[in-house]
Structure formats: structure tokens, C-alpha cells
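Hello Y.,

Per our agreement to keep a running log of every chain we model this quarter, I'm adding this entry. I've kept the format consistent with earlier entries: sequence first, then predicted structure.
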Amino acid sequence: MMNVKPILFLNRLIVRTHNNQIAYDETFHNGVNIIRGQNSSGKSTIANFIFYVFGGDFNNWTTEALKCKEVIAEVCINGAVVTLKRSINESGLQPMSIFWNNYEESKKDSMNWQTFPYKQTANTASYTNVLFRALAFPEVKSAEDSNITMHQILRLLYIDQETPTQSLFRFERFDPPLTREAVAEILLGVYDDSLYFQRLRLKQAKREKEEKDREFQNLNKVFGQATGVNTVAAVQREIESTKVNLSNINTDIAELRQQQIVKTTKRTTLISENIQSDLSEAKNKIRVLHTHINQLDIDIADSKQFISTLEKRISELNNSLLTRQILGELPLTHCPQCLNELINNVAEGHCFLCKQPLSNEAEKANAKRLLQEMDLQVKESKSLLEEKERKRANFSGELPMCIETARSLQKQLDLSIQNSQTTRDERLDDLLV
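Predicted structure for the entry above:
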């Protein structure tokens, strides 16, 4: 169950043209901010820019808006100042660049921007994952058309002029009720990940049932027309008939095996050589599989230890931030070196001990950046671990079959050698007689 109080505040909005000129630059304050102007002066476009830079998917730009290259927003996320940037493009699903500090610092350092795609992959986090983590939102599992993104969150916070006034959500053509319900629960702080996951599973199960019903009807129709076997009773009769035929074949095989072998031809030797060759290949394959499995066991153990170390570092960093937040309210009154009382003549926003200016916002943003990087490393490492475990499972599943094949070949080889020896003994007895 989610129980957080996320804060997302727009400090400043900047829009740049293609020649890097400033088309719009405005700061915002706590409380109500009103954007006013004459008709067709760009008020709705500014609102669309805000929706877009926060993560909304928007591509219905006006001609004037397309003359701009990018929109930048300095935002405050749970006390940390972060800068967001997105390119203005007519195609949708555009990525987002994030700088973990304020806008002025981002102009000085162009190398530390991180770009995240609109959709997440197995090895890459989306900007929704990053912003959700910074906002302390729970991890929302995605499922095709029920994907909870920043775009879905903003639909309940932003309404455009085309949306009907009686609608709480910004209008979209495809609007699953499950998505709206999950978004509302997240913003109200009552989101339950397990409940949402079960809803997705129920929806997926219904879809799979419908597909299986269609497959069954099609197969039933095909089998009914081709063989006339379209009922359970008919299938049971076919099974019983096949079992009788199989029993007769096994009886014939047993009778043939009991017949006396009269002589051995030159082909017997060739068969033995072929069996020996197949047996050698089977044993070599078993050795290779054992080698792969042992190597993967080492790699899997190493990956698990690495993931455990990263998760421990994430936990320690969270504990450090919490400790810093708690101890930050306990100012020093005496010098830790000489134990004399400190004189309280420090300007606001400066350290009580060293008199240097404090940078809490930068520290919080840097901590969130570190958390995000380590979280991405954990996700990538778990993906690699799953791949290694999948390979090991495949090798482990293949190994018993190879061992059984080797045993079967060994038995055939022993039987062939035994038959050859019997034939030679019979020939020797004939010569002695």
C-alpha cells in the first residue's frame, strides 16, 4: 500500500528556438500562477509545453510551436532540484533528458545529461521509471494497454481545451478503465501493487480464454471434417485402438529378438563402429554440458553477490539520506575541536561551523541520481542473471537426455559385441567338429 506525499513543482520553464534563442523564459511561484494574454497569443501552447516537459505524450503542435527546438523545465521533486529537457517533434513517444541539478548548472555542464526513452525495455529504464522513483511512487507493473506512465498521471492533472468539461481525465481515444482506476489510486495514496497486478492477470486470463476458445472451435471444426473425431468418446476409442496396435508391435519385436542369430555379416562390424562413434560423441557432449553448467554456476553466484552488494548500497544510501535529514535539525552549539561555544553570527543558508554556503538541493539531486544509477545497474544485472539461469536450465534439461542416449548406445554396443563373440564361438565349434 502506498503512503507517501510526493511533491512536483515547476520552478522555471524555458523554450528555445532552433537557433538557440530564448522564445519563453518564466519562473513560477508557490500558489496560483496565471498565464494571461490575448486570444491566439500562445497560452494553450505554454500549457502544452508544461504537460509535454513533465512527460506527457504530445505531438499536435501548432506551426509556431514547431519553430521551437526544445522545452526545458527546472522542477523540484520531493525537495531535490532537477532539470528536464525534451525536443519538440511532430512524432510521438519522444525521450527525455534529465540533469540532476538546477538549470543554471546545466548550462555549465553539458556532459552530465542523462537521456531516457519513453518506453522501458529489459535493460533500459524509461523516464517514467526515473521520475516515479524520484517521486517515491511505487513501481507500477506494465501490461500492454494498461501501462501506467507519467503521461497517464498528467492526464488527471492537466486538461486541455478539447477535453469535455465534465471529464476528469484529459480525453484520449483509447482509455481503459483499469488505467484510470490505477492512476486515481496512485494520486490518492491508496495504490496497491498486488491488487493492480491481479487485475492485470484477470484481464490477461480472460483474453487468453477467448483465444483458447477460438482455437478449440477451429480445431474441432477441422478435425470433425477431416477425421470425424470431434468428441471425447471418439478420441478415447482412437487411443484404445492405438494401444492395441502398439501392444501387437511390441509382441512382434519380442518374438524377433528371441530368434536365433545364424551368422554375422560384415555389416555387423560397421554397425558396431557406428555405435562406437555415436557413443563417443554423446560422451563428449556430456563433458561439454558439464563444463557449461559449472561455469554458469560460478557466474550466477557472482551475479547474485554483485546484485546483493548493489541493493545493500541502495539501502545504505537511503539510510544515509534519512540520517542526514534527521541530524540536520540538530545544530552544533560547541566546537568539536576546542569545545568552546560557537558564536551564532552565521548568515542564513550557511554552515554553522565552517560558514560555507549550504547546497542541500544539489546534494538531494545528486543522491537521487546515484540511486537511479544503482537501481539501473540492479535491473540490468537481474536481467543478465535471468539469462544465465535460463541457459543453465536449458543445459540442465539437455543433460539427462544426453546421459540416457549414452547409456542406450553403451547397451547396444555391449549387445553387439556379445553377439559377435557368440557367433565366433559357434564357428569355432563347427570347425572342431
